[in-house]
Structures are given as structure tokens and as C-alpha cells.
Amino acid sequence: MIENISLAFQGIWAHKMRSFLTMLGIIIGIASIISIVSTIKGTNEEIKESLIGAGNNVVQVYLSRDKAEYEMQYQGIPSDVAVISERTRKRLESLEGVKEVSLYRKRAYSENVYYGNTAFNGNLYGIDSHYFSVNDYQINYGRAFSEYDARISHKCCIVDADTASSLFGGKNPIGQTIEIGQDTFLVIGVASKRNTTGPTINSLDDYYTYGGSTSGEIFIPIDTWPIAFQYDEPQSVIVRAESTDMMTVAGNNVANALTNSQIVSGSKFKYESQDLLKKASDMQKLSNATNRQLIWIAGISLLVGGIGVMNIMLVSVTERTKEIGLKKAIGAKRRRILAQFLTEAAALTSLGGVIGVVSGIVMSKVLANVMETRSAISVPACIIAVGFSMFIGIVFGLLPAVKASKLNPIDALRSE
After folding, report:
1. What is the DSSP string of 62-89?
2. Which tens digit of pLDDT belongs to each residue from 122-178?
3. Rounded CA separation 175/168 (Å)
4. Which end of the chain has fewer CB atoms surrounding its CB within 10 Å, N or C?
5. Which residue stretches of the chain have pLDDT < 50?
6. How many angstroms separate the CA atoms of 44 and 285, rounded?
7. Which helix (H) or strand (E) holds 340?
8. Residue 128 has what DSSP assignment?
9. For residues 374-394, b (16+ Cβ closer than 10 Å) or e, as one string?
10. C-alpha angle with apex 339: 336 to 340, nearest 5 degrees?
11. Would you state the pLDDT for residue 210?
């Protein structure tokens, strides 16, 4: 085998231009497929991150009725849905795929929230001690809520970066008070998400120079929610899954468990999870359906390349007729001749496959820069491409190899 491989590469090197032109169809086909597969993979990752976020394993679980999210802010407090207890929250964390669970309440575009005469038109949250951890928030200035705050129902709040910059007009928000309903809440901290597409904020002064509307987020302890709104209400749930791939499992498990334990039997209410992973998968399938057609079109050049290999190998058999006759005359068997020509064809296409893979990687990077898209190299696709190119060499080199192995040694030696 080693001798056959050595002879194959000697033959390729002896006819460099002819060998390169023979490999050209294989190179173009493999390069096209590698660049398309890399673009597909990069696009799929971009779709997934745009919906889910890079490294974000968070799933929202919300109360719904008639397959639509139930807005307690506008539709009232449901009587047949129980408030989720801390014991239930801990039990949810033992479900498959679940890493951490947080309970929260929300008012979107909150009314009756003011700082002085300035109305706040962002989101107001009542959060538990797990909310910042699950959502990957960090405290930039001030402090987080403590157990003492929860125990005494301390009327305090934390604001996010947008609120700190826009609502307080350049003042340090720490120690200021915000009116929520009929009560005043003391600002004790400024928080922001660790992974964000917003402006880079390195100091407290940056909060004051980054302007905007009074939208943003204000957080109060979930235990003080009844003080601000005079009643309890069923919480929404946010779940951090063990991994991105487990988001669907974790979300469904939590939603089903809450539906069974918190909602009266026969009620139209149920808990549902926001399955962003499925949405990303659906969009990826739509993208893949189009790109698979491009791969089949690129595969045509591999067929053309294979025919080129068969043609050049037939020429090679004709050129080396006397050599074949001499080998057979001194005792070379048919399988030895067959193996020699199959090895040469496989070596030719494999070399073309390797060059095609390298060209495809370079092409995908260039296209990604020109089109401002993402490219992700698929190692399995590269390995399969080289293996497939070798397979093409064996398939299309079989006819010339069989022809060479069947030559009559006497007729071969007499040929001109």
C-alpha cells in the first residue's frame, strides 16, 4: 500500500499541470460546500444568539389563558391561581434541566411612579433574592437587597443604568427616593446586566452622560409588592437552565409543574414557557432548507470533477500500457494492478479535497468579512469532505483500474 501511495504521488508530481487541472473540479466543489456549510453554521449560531443571547440559558414561564399571556396589570388578579410559595420554588429547582428559579412580579409602563415631578415610564419589578443571579445582573453602585430588607418589608429599590441616567437628571441616585403609588422607596443600588449590547459604562459619571427617556427598570423586593399595590398576586417565573440545549426541557418541566400545583383543576389558566430555542430552531430549519439546495448545486461540480478523474486515469492507462504489460509479465497479479490505479485515483482526489477544504475555509472567511456575516468552520464537514473526495476517486477510478488489470501482457508489450 505504501509503495502504491508513493508511486501515485510520483505520478501526480510528474504531471503537475495535468493533475492540477484534473483536481480543479474537486477543489471547486469541496471549497463551495465547505464555505456554504460554514456560512450555514455561522448563520444558525447568529439566529440562536439573536433570540436567546450568547451564553444566556434563561427561560420565562408565564401565566396564560386561552393560549395568550395573561396580563394581571390590565385583566385583574385571577382567583383560581395560587401564589407560589418558597417551598414550591425550591421544588422547581430539582426538576430536570433546571439550575435556578426566580419569582417576580411586573408592571410594564408603570403608572404612579415618580421622582419629584418626573414620571417614570419603564418597567417596575418585584423580585426575590434569586432574580439578579438568574438574569446575570450585577450591582455597580450601592448594594443589593438583603435578608433584613425582606424581613422588615423595607421600602427600598434598585434602579438599572437607563433609569439612573435618565430619571435623576445627573444626580447620584443612591439615597434618593422614588414615589411608587402612595409610598416612597429609597434607592439603595444601581444594577446592570453583565452581558449587554448597551453603551460601555465604566464610572458613575457615565450614567449621567448617557441620556435617554425615563424608560428603564426599577426593582423592589417582592415582599414589599403588597405595600405598593395593596394586594398579592401570582408570580411569574424565570428559570436558568443547565445549558442552552436544556432550555426547552427546563421551561416545559417548570410550566407543567406549576400548572399542576398552582392552578385549580378545570381552570382555563395554565403556565407556559417562552420557548426561544424552538423559535431559533424553526428559523434555522427555514435557512437550512434554502442552503441545502446550494449544497446540491455545488455537488454537481464534484460529479464533473469525478468524470475528469476517470478521463485522465483512462489516458494514464493508455500511456502506461507497456509498463502494465511488463509488470504482468514478471508476475504481477490483477489485484496489484487494480490497487495501484485505484490508489492513484484516490490520492489525486484526496489531494484535491484537502486543497478544496483549505480554499473553502479561506473563502468562507472572506465572504464573512465582505457580507458582514458570521462564519463557523465545521470540523466534521471538513473531514467528511476529504473522505468523500477519496470515495469519488475510488468510484470514478474503478473503470480505468479494471481496464488496466485486464490487459493481456503480450498485447500490452506489443502496443505502440
Report:
1. EEEETTEE--HHHH---TTBPPPPHHHH
2. 899 999 999 999 988 999 989 999 988 888 889 999 999 888 888 887 788 999 999
3. 11
4. C
5. 54-55, 197-213
6. 9
7. helix 334-371
8. -
9. bbbbbeebbeebbebbbbbbb
10. 85
11. 40
In this structure, what is the dihedral angle of CA atoms 40, 44, 49, 51, given to the nearest 10 degrees? 140
Whole-number Cα distances in Å, 299 to 31, 36, 227, 294, 350: 10, 11, 68, 9, 16
- Alpha carbons 45 and 284: distance in angstroms, whole number: 9
Residue-level pLDDT at 173: 92
* Rounded (5°) CA angle 138-144-150: 140
- What is the grid cell recorded at 54? 450568547
Phi and psi at residue 206, to the nearest 5°: -65, -30
**Grid cell in block for residue 275:** 420557548
Cα dist. 338→17, 205, 254, 392, 394 in Å? 25, 79, 63, 16, 11
Written as nine digits, the cell of 203 is 464610572
The answer to whether residues 398 and 313 touch, using CB atoms and an 8 Å cutoff, is no
Reduced to 3 states (helix: H, G, I; strand: E, B; else coil), residue 415 is: coil
Place of cell 439566529: 47
86 φ, ψ (degrees, to nearest 5): -65, -35
SS3 call for 220: strand
Over residues 225-234, the pLDDT tens digits come to: 888 887 788 8
Count of alpha carbons within 13 angstroms of residue 123, beta-carbon side: 12
| CA–CA dist 205, 197 (Å, integer) | 19
Spatial neighbors of 279 by CB under 8 A, at least 6 apart, are: 51
Pairwise CA distance, residues 77 & 141, whole Å: 35
Contact 134, 58 (CB under 8 A): yes
Name the strand (E) or helix (H) holding 266.
none
CA 293 to CA 289: how far, in whole Å? 7
